[in-house]
Design goal:
alpha+beta, 21% strand
């Protein structure tokens, strides 16, 4: 009798646990489906804020979409030859995935901003830091060589070191730098350990103690901007 009761008790516990697992899984699945549109919207809003930040327009979660619609006047996708490609939405393209492809197969998003001081060309960036992905946006003046502004972000860089790429003090010196030299040769921007030479139009100071992240950002700039070189040269003044 005692054995039968113990066996029944074990069956009950197992059955109850199985039912609870199924119920919890179902609840989590439903919650995920309900929350997914909100999560996707939050990601989109954050993306809009970062794009706007590259042209020095500050926004909040509440007004990001309104300001994005106000300042971003055109978006399109190009190939590595600088030719527009139809049928793609620049906003939804994953630059991380594109940078894994051969250059000739990449779909490259372009965002056009308009401010009182002129038209700005914004391109996305994606690369590797010390501990994980780094990314951002870079805005150029109409001459397609002078940087107007940048926005950088990261997932796992070290606070106080590599994570400083997201701070304004690091980003502001990029404004006014040139990604081409006087002969029209693509140079990108160097991130110099120990400090850039005063007046160097193609270099900024690296982060003290964040050498690997700084060099990762330098590589990101070179690799991503090189993808757009043909477009910049075709459209530049």
């Amino acid at each position: 009798m005692r054995y039968a009761m113990k066996k029944f008790s074990n069956i009950y516990i197992f059955s109850f646990a199985s039912i609870m697992v199924i119920v919890v899984a179902a609840v989590l699945s439903v919650a995920a489906l309900i929350l997914q549109p909100l999560q996707e919207r939050n990601v989109a809003i954050e993306k809009m804020r970062n794009i706007l930040s590259s042209i020095q327009v500050q926004s909040t979660a509440a007004d990001a979409q309104e300001k994005y619609n106000q300042y971003i006047v055109e978006t399109f996708v190009i190939n590595s030859e600088g030719e527009k490609i139809e049928g793609f939405d620049a906003f939804t393209i994953d630059m991380r995935a594109e940078m894994r492809k051969p250059l000739e197969e990449r779909h490259l998003p372009v965002f056009v901003g308009m401010k009182n001081d002129g038209r700005k060309i914004i391109v996305p960036l994606h690369g590797k830091g010390l501990w994980g992905p780094i990314y951002g946006y870079l805005a150029l003046e109409e001459d397609m060589k002078t940087i107007y502004g940048v926005n950088f972000g990261h997932d796992k860089e070290t606070p106080g070191l590599g994570a400083e790429i997201s701070e304004s003090w690091f980003q502001e010196p990029f404004a006014g730098k040139s990604i081409f030299d006087e002969s029209g040769r693509f140079t990108s921007i160097e991130v110099e350990r120990g400090g850039a030479e005063p007046g160097d139009p193609h270099a900024v100071d690296a982060i003290s103690g964040g050498t690997i992240t700084s060099k990762g950002l330098e590589s990101m700039l070179y690799d991503c901007l090189l993808s757009y070189e043909s477009y910049f040269k075709k459209e530049g003044i």
